[in-house]
Amino acid sequence: MAAGRYRRFLRLCEEWPVEDTKRQRDLGLALRQRVAQAFREGEHTPIADPEACDQMYESLVRIHTNFYKNKYPRLKDTTFTGVTVEDCRMILATDILKQMEDMKKGTWRRLREKFSAKKPEEDSK
Hints:
- By secondary structure, the chain is mainly alpha-helical.
- The chain is 62% helix and 0% strand.
- The radius of gyration is 21 Å and the shape is flat.
């Protein structure tokens, strides 16, 4: 039965999209890593708690298929702040977050990093 569970998780990983805008923070990427870690031996991996494994799979399928979004439809596609889904995606993109992090740096630190001959990683050594 472990082989069947392994194949179901693999199929879910194939269907789950990877968002390039969320490098190192993507749920699809995290899912693939967790499945690879949990099923190290592939189809021959012994499963300690099959019921928990099945429950996890069913929960992930509900997230992937937007079960609750369809079950409880929203009246508007905005939040209480008036921000749309596309605006949220843009704000949460890794590049935008990096730019915001750079903006938080003080002027002295930015100048030091800009004109420093060493890379910032070398400063911490």
